[in-house]
Amino acid sequence: MVKQPLHLCTPLLLSSTLSGRCQRDVYLKLECVQPGGSFKVRGLGRMIQKAQSKGFSKIVCSSGGNAGMAAAYCGKSLEMQTYIFVPSTTPKYMRDRLQAIGAEVVVAGDVWEEADLKARQMVDAAPTRALYVPPFDHADIWEGHGTVVHEIKQQLPQGVVPAAVVVSVGGGGLFNGVAQGLESSDWSHVPIVAVETKGAESFNAMTKARALVRIPAITSLAKSLGANCVSQRSLDIVLSGRPVKSMVVSDRQAVLAVESFLNDERLLVEPACGASLTIAYNESLLTEAMKDNTSTGPIVIIVCGGNAVTLDALRTWLDTTA
Ligand SMILES: *Cc1c(COP(=O)(O)O)cnc(C)c1O
Fold first, then answer.
1. Residue bearing the CA closest to ligand 1, atom 7
2. Nearest-CA neighbor of 258 among 313, 300, 220?
3. Residue 196 alpha carbon to ligand 1 centre in Å
4. Does domain 40-132 have CATH number 3.40.50.1100?
């Protein structure tokens, strides 16, 4: 398949501020500037393009967050009808944004499970035309997310190998894709630092139990990391023995990193993304992340982005986590 992908090749920025703080080169892979506001267009775009070439003509998604935004963008670009089922709790500004892109927003029920059920019913009624698009758990999605590593390899100075790649983890789609991209770039020895916030740490629970763990409730304000359980593939990758460092940071640390990043780089990202940035903004977290890591290479942070943030929300979070 040689179709033009739907995602952009994003800038890889050598941050002088963060490199100074960390006393080694820190590169920022700016997924926050992707269409749809996050890296999600990489994987969802790959999945949806493949499905279209097999004859699918409709996209059905049950995310009122960044996956929904990416699905809406893909639908618009590929001229496919796009239905986003959301619960009534989805903020109006997100519904408006989805509609502005051209998606049909269907409010179904008061909780996500109800909206998702309605989405699946629509797909079941037209199984050869309508594609159900999950937020993270599909092989095509991981394949698409993996392109972020291929770009990083092209963009770093010749021969430079990262000491670590830092990613935020929700359901593990980005993590799986980055692991796969490192593998296909002959960088399977490069450690992945997998960061979550406390109250959304289903990946960390999995690494400790060495089995899938369902955490009972998401209490973190980093809602884009709020998967109760990670994908089976994430477990398989951890069990394969590739180097992975799982880290859990506080909401406070994530929100402070969002604020510092806004001031330093003039970019506004979600706390879900701030979680990854804490590694470069917090000396003790950096030490923990790089413990036993003898490489002198740069740290590459995937700046995963996100829509669910405004300056007002950031001010509120700074207050409520103080
Ligand atoms: C989706 C998302 C994540 C989590 O990605 P997973 O693939 O679910 O692990 C993190 N940050 C942002 C901004 C996201 O949109």
1. 173
2. 313
3. 10
4. yes
Distance from Cα 44 to the centre of ligand 1, integer Å = 12
Task: Give me the pLDDT at residue 120, please.
Answer: 95
What's the predicted TM-score (pTM) here? Answer: 0.97
Distance between Cα 199 and ligand 1 center (Å) = 15
Residues of the chain with CATH 3.40.50.1100: 12-39+138-321, 40-132
Which residues, listed in sequence order, are joined to residue 105 by a DSSP beta bridge? 84
The pick from 41, 174, 192 for probing ligand 1's pocket by mutation, whose C-beta has the most ligand atoms within 8 angstroms, reads: 174
Sequence-ordered strand ranges (E) for the chain:
12-14, 26-30, 58-61, 81-86, 104-107, 130-133, 164-168, 192-197, 244-249, 299-303
CATH number of 12-39+138-321: 3.40.50.1100
Kindly report, residue by residue over 235-293, the tens digit of the pLDDT: 999 999 999 999 999 999 999 999 999 999 999 999 999 999 999 999 999 999 999 99
Q: If you measure from the C-alpha of residue 304 to the centroid of ligand 1, how many angstroms do you get, rounded to a whole number? A: 7
**Closest by alpha carbon to 132, among 38, 78, 56?**
56
3-state secondary structure (DSSP) of residue 276: helix
Q: Which two tokens mark 128?
A: 């050869």
Give me the pLDDT at residue 66, please: 96
